[in-house]
Model the fold of this input.
Amino acid sequence: MPTATLSILIPLYNEEEFIVELLNRVLAAPLPDGLDREIIIVDDCSTDDSAMLVEGFIAAHPKSRMSLLRRIPNKGKGAAIREAIDAATGEYAVVQDADLEYNPNELTKLMGPLLRGDADAVFGSRFLVSGETRVLYFWHSVANKCLTLLCNIASDLNLTDMETCYKAFRTALVKSIPLTSERFGIEPELTIKLARRKARIYETPISYHGRTYEEGKKIGLKDAFEALWVILRSRFTSHIHTAAVPPALEALSDAPRFNRWMADTIAPWLGTRVLEIGAGKGNITRHLCRRRKRYVAADLNPEYVEQLRMAFRHRPSVEVAHLDAENAADFASFEGQMDTVLCLHILEHLEDDREALKRIRTVLRPTGRLILLVPNDPAAFGSLDSAMGHKRRYSLTQLSALIDAAGFELDNVIDFNRVSRPGWQFAGKVLRVRTVSTFALKMFDRLVWLWRRIDLNLPWQPMSTIVIATRRD
Done:
C-alpha cells in the first residue's frame, strides 16, 4: 500500500503536439515502492488545443489522480508552477515540463535522496555525467552555466545546473517559501530561497533531450536578463518565509555565535532528560542535546518539526515532537517524565502564560527544573517586539509572581544580553522599525566574542531575563 504521495506538477502552454504523450509517459513511469502519484496540470491560457486534450485524457483515465487547472490570462511558467504548488497534496512534489525534454522514467532517481531523508530538494543536472544528452546550442549552454555561477555566488552553493526544470522537493517546505516570479525566473528564485532557508539540496545526473526553437523551445535572451534581476532580488530580500513566522524572529534564528552564547549560559542548569519547547530549527538543540539520556525537541510549526526530524535522525537520544504550549493535550505524553523543561522565547508569545507554566509543571518530575528565557522590562516594548509577535515584556516582579502562582520556586535569575539593549530600544521606540537588519545582525553575531566579555559590566538593564526555577510539591 502507498505510504506517501508524489505530486507531479506540469505547467502547460501550447504543447498540443506533446502533452498526451507526456501524460502517458508520466502515468507509466515507475515510482519507488510505497509512493503514489497525483498529477496536477496547470494550463497557462494556451491558445491551441492543449487544455482540451488534457480534459479528454483525464476523462479516459478516471482511476488516475489527475486534475487540470486553467489560468486566465497567460502569465508564465513561474505563475503556473506556483498555482500547482498551492494545489499539491503530496508529501513530495516534482516539476515536470510538458515538452518531452525530461524523461519521467528518471523520477525514481530524483526521489532517492528525498525518500532516504537525506535531502529537502533534489535537482536533476543536465551537466553531470549521465546516460545521454542531446547536443544543442553552445551559447545557450554558456548562458546556463553563467547564470548557475551567479546563482551559486548569491546562494553559496556549488550546483552544476541551476536552470534545470527537473526539481523535486518536500512540498511543505516549498509551500512555506513565498515565490513571486511569473516566468522562468522561478528557477533562480526557488534555488536561492531554498539555500537561504538552509535546505539540504542534492543533485543527480539526468538525461536531457532538448529541443530547438523551431521545435517549440520558449526560453530566450529576455529570460536570461530577468534571471539576473531575480538572482539579485532573491539574494537580498528578507521575504523567505511565509507570514506564519515573523521575519524578525526568522532572522534571529540565523545567529550561530549568539545562539551558542545562549546555550553556554543555560547548559550548567540542564539535567539528563530535557524537553525543549519551541526548538525551531534546532539552533539551541544542537548545542545542548549531547550527553543527555533523553532530549525532546518540540515545536508548533509543522515545517520546523520536519526539519528537526531530519537534522537529528542520527541522534538516538533525541526525539522530535509537535507541541503547542497552549494545548494541554500535547503535554499528556510527557507527564512526569522530564527533569528539565527548556522554554526560550516562548512565554511572551502566549495569550495565557500562567496556564502554560502550569502545563509545563505537569511534565516535570518532583524537584524538576524549569529554565525560562523571556524579554526583560515592559518599558522597552516597541515595534520590534510587535514584529516578533511578543505580547508583553516582563519585569522581575511580574515574573516572580507568575512563577510562584504556577507552582515553582525561584532558584536563580541571570541577566542576559545587555549589549543589544540600547540599539533595540532606539530601533523599536524611536525609529519604530519592524525588521532586523540582516547586515546589522551579522555584524553583531561576529562580535559575540567581545560581547560575552563585557556584557555583565554594562550599566543598563538586560534585553532578556533567564530564570531557573524548581517544581514545588
Observations:
- Residues 82 and 179 are 7 Å apart (CA to CA).
- The two ends are 50 Å apart (CA to CA).
